[in-house]
Each structure stands twice: as structure tokens, then as C-alpha cells.
Amino acid sequence: MKLENHLLSILESLHDAVLVVSKDGTIVYVNTAYSVQFGVPAHKIINRKISEVEPQARILEVLKTGQPLINDYSYLHSLNIHVFANITPLMEKGELIGVVTIMKDISEFYALQEELNRYKTYSTQLEEQLNKRIFSLLESHAPGMRQAVNIAKKVASSDATVLLFGETGVGKEVFARAIHEASPRGDKPFVAINMASLPESLFESELFGFEEGAFTGSRRGGKKGLFELANGGTLFLDEIGELTPFLQAKILRVLQEKSFIKVGGTTTHPLNVRIIAATNKNLQQMMREGKFREDLYYRLNIVPITIPPVRERKQDLPILINNILGELRAKYKKQVTVTQEVYEIFECYDWPGNVRELSNVLERMIAICTKSYFIPEDIPPFVREGTSLNENPVRSTARNDEKAMNLPGIIERTEKEMLEEVLKTSRTRTEAIQKLGISRKAFYRKLKKYNIK
């Protein structure tokens, strides 16, 4: 059989569209598949110039260069379709005599791709909205806090271990919960463990659980440990720096082997949890002192996040107060607002107990408040006077005595005496501020400075 006698039959049998042009760009052939797929009868296109039918046709490039274009994408404006094509030069005795194009309509695929991209964009927008809601309690204007929140957002989607550093009361568990809720494990359990509260004798049974009959008085059927209860979710190890070296070794082994054995059992249980740890200790200093295992530190410190104290982000006080009051208003069924005067007093206090202390103070205030707004008298004296509960008055007096013998000390003593005298002769602090001719913020700063009550 001579194939050349059957070439047209072969072309007509193809399911892909075929178009042939001569070297001058005239369309000399289209197969039946072309007419069927694109709805163009052969007699309406044959003998027409390809440049007239499709001015930007990629075929023109092959006619010009003699180089094939394989798996080439293009959009045919004349047909309003997207196509993939193999465009190959036809050669005879080394001379270009035309071009043959075999093409496939991918418009449906392209439409599906665009639809998928729309869904991806929509999904990304929903995820951003969800993350914004999840991290709303961590909103901040302070650079240090914003950096911490940004790291938390970035790491949330992974399973990387996070180690949170921060003073007592800064909100380490709030951070941990936000990371958990924004993660793929967000619909699984979040189990928080205060490591300092676990007695060494109960450590293994509480964390790993125990089998029935493991010890005298053990519960029938045994008990699931906190590790097992957190399966698939997140395990928050709070106050990790309080663990003894013996218990540190226990935790390290579980983290290394990603499995545990219940007390009284022999079966190994896989550990499928995301670990977030937190501490208010300087773990590096503890390592140097031999109080914290170096291998455990590096196992936990994959992504460290340092949460700044409230005194370093006082510009966030309005946000923090609003978030806390949102819950307290519902709890006490009181709609109480915060005046500028109260804000200014709060800004003069350093909040050594951080967000936890702020929450405690606001709850105390809303409990005793009889108006629709807070007044300075609602604020606990130690906050109003700008001193922490644990400040040493002897140390403060000693500092004042040192200053008394020099010019700045004399100026400060005079200023203090004036403040005390004006306060004695004024009915309210507002009146005292007006007499002194200073701002309210400066007034309370000086009260704090001179420990005037």
C-alpha cells in the first residue's frame, strides 16, 4: 500500500482539526474535524489568505522562520476560542512549500482553569477574612507586637513547633489559640497544659494516660492522657521552663520519637499533634546554668516568637481595653465607656502584670462603677498613683534623698511641694490641673514620679 495515495483519508480520519497553508499563506486544506469543531464549512475558508482570516495567526511566524512551534498556545480571535497547536513547516527538497497545523480547542479547559482561579482567589479572600477574625484579639499598632503577630500568621499554616517568649500575662495562650485556629488543625482539639502545675508523681499518667490496672486504685478501662486527647490538634505546653531536668527528658523523648506509651502499657501510641510551647523564663540563661536541656531547647525553638509587654506598647491600650470590656460588658450587663482622663491615667502606669493585670483592673472597675462611664475614683489607687503593688517605698525614699543635695533635686523637691499644696487646696484633681496649667497626662506622670497619693 502506497501511503501517499491515502494521505487525505488519513487526515480526514483525525479527530483533531487540521489546516494546511501554502508558502504564500493561502489556505489550501482543512479537514472535516476542523469544520465540525469550529463550525466553519471548508468552502468558506479554502483559498483565502490566513492573514485575512486571522491576522495574528502563529502560522505566519512559521512561514517566516521555517521553525516549528510545538504545543503552542494561542487565542483565535476569528473563532473566539483558545487552542493548543503543533505548527510544522512542510519542506520539499529543502525548500519551504507550506505549513501544516494540527490544533485542539481548549476553550472548555481554559474556562475551567479560569473558574478554578476564581475559586482560588475567593478561597484566599475567605482565608484572609478568617485570619483577620482569628487574630483580631492580637491587633496592634506597636511594631514589636505587629512583628510577632505577622510571624504567627505565617507559621500557622504549617506544623512547625513554636516557642512563645513573654512575661507573665502578655497573652501567650491567646497567641497559641490563634495559631491553632488559623491552622489546618483548627477543627481539632486545642489542649493547654500548665507544666508548672503537674506534680512529678502524676506527670506521666496525666500526659500519657494509663492502662486499666496500672496501679492500685486506677480507673477501670484506664484513662486517656492529655497527649491522646489532643490527637490531631495542638498541644500547648505552657511554662515549659518550670520542668525539672527529669521531666524535660521525658518530654524530649516523646517529641523525638513522636510516640508515647501509657503508664502500665506496652503499646506504642503515635503522637499526631502540633506542639506550641511558652515560657516567661530566659531559657538560654537556664541552659548555661544547666537548668534546661539544650537538646530540648533546640527541639522546641523552631519558630521563636517574642511577645512584648504592655509597657512597650501603650499605644495599644485602647484596643486592649475595648477587647476586654467587650466581654466584661456582657458578663456584668453594663454599658460602660472609658473617658480620656482614664486613658491618660492608664498610660502613666507600667502594667507589670500586663494584659492579665489590665483585665483584672477593668473587671474590678466595672464591678464597682455606678455610672455609664469610668471616673478616676473607679481606678484602683496603685494604678491611679502610678505605682505597682510590689514597689519598695524605702528604695523610692532613698532615691529622693540622693537628689535632695543637688540643683535638679532642689527643683524636683520644689515641684513636689507645689503639687502637694495645690492638691490640698483643690476640690478635684481636674481643678488642680487647671491651677497648675499643665496637661492631664503630665499631671499624672508627676504624681507617679513623686509618689503622691
Automatic annotation (TrEMBL):
Domain (Sigma-54 factor interaction) ranges: 138-367
Keywords: ATP-binding, DNA-binding, Nucleotide-binding, Transcription, Transcription regulation
Key word Transcription regulation present: yes
GO terms of molecular function: ATP binding; sequence-specific DNA binding
PROSITE patterns associated with the record: PAS, SIGMA54_INTERACT_1, SIGMA54_INTERACT_2, SIGMA54_INTERACT_3, SIGMA54_INTERACT_4
GO BP: any one term: regulation of DNA-templated transcription
Protein name from the UniProt record: Sigma-54-dependent Fis family transcriptional regulator
PAS domain boundaries: 3-56
Superkingdom: Bacteria
